[in-house]
Amino acid sequence: MIPSISLHRQNKTKKISIPVLQLFLILLFSPKSLRASQELIPNPNPIVSPSPIPSGDMSNQKKRNFQIEAFKHRVVVDPKYADKTWQILERAIHQIYNQDASGLSFEELYRNAYNMVLHKFGEKLYTGFIATMTGHLKEKAKIIESAQGGAFLEELNKKWNEHNKALEMIRDILMYMDRTYIESTKKPHVHPMGLILWKDNVVHSPKIHKRLLNTLLDLVQKERVGEVIDRGLVRNVTKMFMDLGEGVYQEDFEKPFLEASSEFYKVESMEFIEACDCGDYLKKAEKRLTEEIDRVGHYLDGKSEDKITSVVEREMIANHMQRLVHMENSGLVNMLLNDKYEDLGRMYNLFRRVTNGLATVRDVMTSHLREMGKQLVTDPEKSKDPVEFVQRLLDERDKYDKIISTAFGNDKTFQNALNSSFEYFINLNTRSPEFISLFVDDKLRKGLKGIADVDVEVILDKVMMLFRYLQEKDVFEKYYKQHVAKRLLSGKTVSDDAERSLIVKLKTECGYQFTSKLEGMFTDMKTSEDTMRGFYSSHPELSEGPTLIVQVLTTGSWPTQPAVPCNLPAEVSVLCEKFRSYYLGTHTGRRLSWQTNMGTADIKAVFGKGQKHELNVSTFQMCVLMLFNNSDRLSYKEIEQATEIPAPELKRCLQSLACVKGKNVIKKEPMSKDIGEDDLFVVNDKFTSKFYKVKIGTVVAQKETEPEKQETRQRVEEDRKPQIEAAIVRIMKSRKILDHNNIIAEVTKQLQPRFLANPTEIKKRIESLIERDFLERDNTDRKLYRYLA
């Protein structure tokens, strides 16, 4: 019965019947459909809803009453309504699965399904839909099972596509049931239910399930061995698994796929590693990884990528890491020695994918570096030439820097391993600080001549890199000061800018204290130039005759050397006295001492047949040569008595003047390489040279003699004592009380930027401070020290 709306006005009732429910259906269906459904809509519970309407304040208007009344007659429902309606829908589902849906009215089908739910027949509709679809899927399963060979997957894919299309149509017809009945009963919706039915009746069919998995795995296996397969078909089937749910994909395909892949790569890796060298094996492993990633992109779930690559990494790399890096004639060490950047990069990229992979590569590289470096720095033959020694270190450093930047992606952990290895073996040779300073000396004397400023900075930066590895930086400082002093005093430095640039770098690295004396040397050289200009301005009469150039050196800034006695020629001695008088007259409270062993001279000489040359010699050599202005022949004893030069210095001086081929401006009788006290010396009238200016160097070893090394080492040790004491006092002043072991640790850490303090020496310095009442021992615990303010 259709309810009506009655309007009451002034006691007269005018009934207007409005089919409310039909009005709603008009919005959804055509009038033809509306008429066909009118007799099927029941209303067993008519609604009567009197609703008085309040009137306004107008005096002349009467109250209006509106009332909704029920229809006066009932509509009887056909008892077979549900069965008839379901038969209509069932036939439609059959037609859809039989691909004969062109004649169906989906509006009518939707309305029938709608009415069944509305009449409380939702359960019948839902169970009927499941039963009908199950029947069709079982029929499809039989067809799929009967397919042979390659047609099996094609038939499965075809039926799956048909099922999906049918499922979409059925879902549209049963949309109202989806939204109301299924929502209220919490049952699976139509589309998910259709997927479940497909999984249960087709995919998990006893005759399909195992066969489907084996077929897919066989196709993957064929592709791995180089055969071409229908990737599109495989993609459709694997996508079917994904559509059926993540759990279905994982359990029914992914898990068996990963297990089969693991076994495949386990066998293949064993075959490869027996037949290939390390480089070829890594190429094959890289290729396999690329193939699996490509495979995922074409027909597997994207989430499978990490899982399958993990299988390849485990079976082909992780399980063979140690054998690969240590493989004879082709492993990591061979790659490093032969600069195989491509293979090294491949190893780095593959090993980084597995746990402890890079650590394994790094450990082997570190071990190789330390062994190689140890052989380099402890080989006596390779330590004979300091410049070559340091150049080899720099070449090795450049080599491994390039490997790390090119092959290892500038990995910081590898850089740290490289640094620790160099620090280890450079300090195995106690002469490394001296050799590095000699290398710098060689470069700044002649090695940097003609090199662009940018390249000079590169060389200096490399030197600073080696300097950072030194544990005894104060030893380097000692030698470097000596070498800088010689360069400055002899005027042999290639570039003042390069000298100052290196000092700035040392200052940045070690602080002002490290370079203050070096900077003082350059200040002295500049001050000396101003002093000489003032000296000659005040003595214009000296413009004729010998020219004297004096460098006034501050004692604290320059390396301390004992003053060597020497009788200067009269002409030079007069000039020296005049300078002394001038300098002390302009500066009060100062004392001058001549360092004749550090000077040079340019003298003009005339040999037989009027051969003229300008000789650049040391001050000692000048003193010897000037004696021959008054004598043609002189004995060793006479020269020694006249010059008062110490015997070792005099012998080296005479050796350089008489025994060096091409520089022998005097002759020795008898001729030999060594200087004896009974030797006689005469001017070599036959001396010739193609150069007008001839430099005669002093015969001296580039490296220190053993006594000189001992002396330098002793000076270094003496200089360390006040530094160690200062560190102890600083620590105790802040801590007040500290035990012996902690003092050793703190002092070592604090002095590490300059040198590696010896615990025995630290203990001696503590004892010295106790004696001088800076510290005291605790009365009960003798290993505990107290600071005395």
- Helix count from the secondary structure assignment: 32
- Going across the biggest sheet, name each strand in turn: 2-1-4-3
The class by helix and strand makeup works out as alpha+beta
What is the gyration radius calculated from CA atoms?
A: 52 Å
Family: Belongs to the cullin family.
Signal peptide: 1-36
Domain Cullin family profile: 431-658
Protein name: Cullin family profile domain-containing protein
Summarize the topology.
Blueprint: E1 4-9, E2 12-16, H1 20-26, H2 31-37, E3 49-53, E4 64-69, H3 81-97, H4 106-118, H5 122-146, H6 151-173, H7 175-179, H8 181-185, H9 190-203, H10 209-224, H11 231-243, H12 246-275, H13 278-299, H14 304-316, H15 321-325, H16 332-337, H17 341-351, H18 357-378, H19 386-406, H20 412-426, H21 432-447, H22 453-469, H23 473-490, H24 496-510, H25 512-538, H26 570-586, E5 600-606, E6 612-618, H27 619-627, E7 633-635, H28 636-643, H29 647-658, E8 666-669, E9 680-683, E10 693-695, H30 706-735, E11 737-739, H31 740-751, H32 759-771, E12 775-777, E13 784-787
Parallel strand pairs: 6-10
Antiparallel strand pairs: 1-2, 1-4, 3-4, 5-6, 7-9, 8-9, 11-13, 12-13
Protein name: Cullin family profile domain-containing protein
Pfam families: Cullin (PF00888), Cullin_AB (PF26557), Cullin_Nedd8 (PF10557)
Domain Cullin family profile: 431-658
What's the short story on this structure?
With 789 residues, this protein is an alpha+beta fold.
